[in-house]
Amino acid sequence: MLNQGSVLLFIVLVLSITSPIEAQTYVSDDFESPAISEGLWEIITGDWKTADGVFHQLAQGDPWLTAMITKDRWSDDWTEYTIEVSATQLDEGDHPLNILFRVQEPVPQAWADRNTAQTHMYRWIVNGWDNTLSRPYIYNAGATTMLAEKAVTLDIGTFYRLRLEVTNAGFRGFIDDEEFFDVEHAEWTNGRVGLQSFGGLADFDDFVVYGPNGLVVEPQDKLAMTWGSLKTP
Predict the structure, then answer these.
(1) pLDDT per residue as tens, the chain (233 positions)
(2) Angle CA(73)–CA(173)–CA(182) in degrees, nearest 5?
(3) What's the pTM?
(4) Are 81 and 57 in contact (CB under 8 A)?
(5) Whole-number Å distance between alpha carbons of 227 and 219
(6) Domains of the chain, CATH where assigned
(7) How far apart are CA 21 and CA 225, in angstroms?
(8) C-alpha to C-alpha distance for 84 and 22, rounded to whole angstroms
(9) How many Cα atoms sit within 13 Å of 134 on the Cβ side?
(10) What is the maximum span of the chain, computed from C-alpha positions, in angstroms?
(11) 53, 34, 57, 33: which is closest to 45 by C-alpha?
């Protein structure tokens, strides 16, 4: 028979095993539900479709094929966060994957808008210049500045895990856990995030934005106390 102390210890152990730790998942989409995705994304340009558990960008030609997290699902209080997404370029040539962040209003509606006085945004060009270079940029009221550069070549049709860690002081970018830049730069810290394909077909999956406390960790096996991995920026 359990005494009072044993019962209390048992309750504590059960709670620690079955309850997720404190986390800050701001936005997430596994693209399993077209209805959920429709309410989460604002399509700026392109032919974006959620099907088969993937976010497909099906248009070609336009360099500004962009989908943004909607205004009502984003908070400008979120100034420190990590973006993660699995992505693959599907067209050969100069059709890189891109992550947009700190995008202030008005969001550029066309490629030419990136260099106007109204535009203030950061953009990580993951594999540009015919799939040879990774570069983050700032577009600030008509001035465009490259902030870092590293060689990269991605296999067409292969998914890569992209991770962008954003803080009030700067940001770091990773492809499959390999660091590609660590930049101290914060002209401003607010603004929405989004995805972009440059003129070609692309697929995106398992998108998430989470705060400094990391993702929710759920136990995979309660008896064995096996946990998923905790990602922290």
Answers:
(1) 555 554 444 443 444 443 444 679 999 999 999 999 999 999 999 999 999 999 999 999 999 999 999 999 999 999 999 999 999 999 999 999 999 999 999 999 999 999 999 999 999 999 999 999 999 999 999 999 999 999 999 999 999 999 999 999 999 999 999 999 999 999 999 999 999 999 999 999 999 999 999 886 544 433 332 223 333 33
(2) 120
(3) 0.84
(4) no
(5) 5
(6) 24-214 (2.60.120.560)
(7) 14
(8) 19
(9) 19
(10) 75
(11) 57
Residue with tokens 């599907």: 90
Q: What 3 state SS string does 131-180 have?
A: HCEEEEEEEECCEEEECCCEECCCCCCCCEEEEEEECCCEEEEEECCEEE
CA dist., res. 57 & res. 45, Å (int): 10
